[in-house]
Design brief:
269 residues; alpha/beta; Rossmann fold; seven-stranded parallel β-sheet; two-stranded parallel sheet; 10 helices; 9 strands; 14% strand
Length: 269
């Protein structure tokens, strides 16, 4: 068990939702934080919401996960701030609300860049130091749709499935280096993820899903993530009754397929 106290932690997607709540809760524990997202002003606001003592240990590092080739510079800056990263939280990402037949390939690629390739790149940039230190933890915000596909989320689901394949392999490679990997699979969590989701032509969805608005709180999700890391959990499912989808897919795949087909599909204009 590893307590997240006085650790150096780099969080992407920290300007809102789960990343914002992780920042608040980890700051209270006295951790040294590097918080990242595209908008510096939003990150500064999150930082300002912490008490003065915590703010002294929070560094703002803006980055754009869609620009994968630019992440080398971000990692260089992160190591200039702190010589080591104890925990990397690959939390940033975007969702999708569009049918396969109406989704441009450029949108598919953007989803993979933001949700998958950026996480791989940052992990590869941080991993050598973790191996050198013989210590580290990588936390990935996946999704229940990283375990099964649902309508209107084809490439989003694909990007999350890809995370599982990559990070399960990584976990098997680095356990002897005392490096742990946790995949956090969230269901409906009340964040702006559906509002900020992309449609088939790349525009923003701008609507809150009903299930999202009635979902678990981002604060509770962040608490569950911290607990999962401290207990060195490999994979965690978090949400309401939608979590049962994982087990239905595993043990009753035929029934699950029929249920998925009956899901309401609303075309996004």
């Amino acid at each position: 068990m590893t307590k997240l106290i006085n650790k150096t932690i780099w969080i992407t997607g920290a300007s809102s939702g789960i990343g914002e709540q992780l920042t608040y809760q980890l700051a209270k524990k006295g951790n040294r934080l590097i918080i990242s997202a595209r908008r510096k002003d939003a990150l500064e606001l999150v930082k300002s919401n912490c008490d003065d003592t915590a703010q002294e240990k929070i560094h703002v590092l803006p980055l754009d996960l869609s620009k994968v080739d630019a992440l080398d510079d971000a990692a260089k800056k992160a190591f200039e701030i702190h010589e080591r990263i104890d925990v990397l939280v690959n939390n940033g990402g975007i969702s999708q609300r569009s049918l396969v037949s109406e989704t441009g390939f450029d949108v598919d690629r953007r989803l993979m860049d933001v949700n998958f390739f950026s996480a791989i790149k940052l992990t590869k940039l941080v991993l050598p130091e973790m191996i050198k230190n013989n210590s580290g933890h990588i936390l990935i915000t996946s999704s229940l749709v990283g375990k099964f596909g649902t309508p209107l989320r084809s490439s989003y689901s694909a990007s999350k499935h890809a995370l599982h394949g990559f990070f399960e392999a990584l976990a098997a490679e680095v356990w002897e280096n005392n490096i742990f990997v946790t995949l956090f699979c969230g269901g409906y969590i009340k964040t702006n993820i559906s509002i900020n989701a992309v449609t088939g032509n790349g525009t923003t969805h701008n609507l809150m899903d009903e299930n999202q608005s009635n979902g678990k709180s981002a604060e509770d999700a962040a608490k569950a993530m911290i607990k999962a890391v401290e207990q060195n959990k490999r994979e965690v499912y978090f949400g309401g009754k939608e979590v049962m989808g994982v087990y239905l897919k595993r043990f009753m795949p035929g029934l699950f397929a029929k249920m998925i087909r009956k899901m309401k599909i609303r075309q996004v204009q």
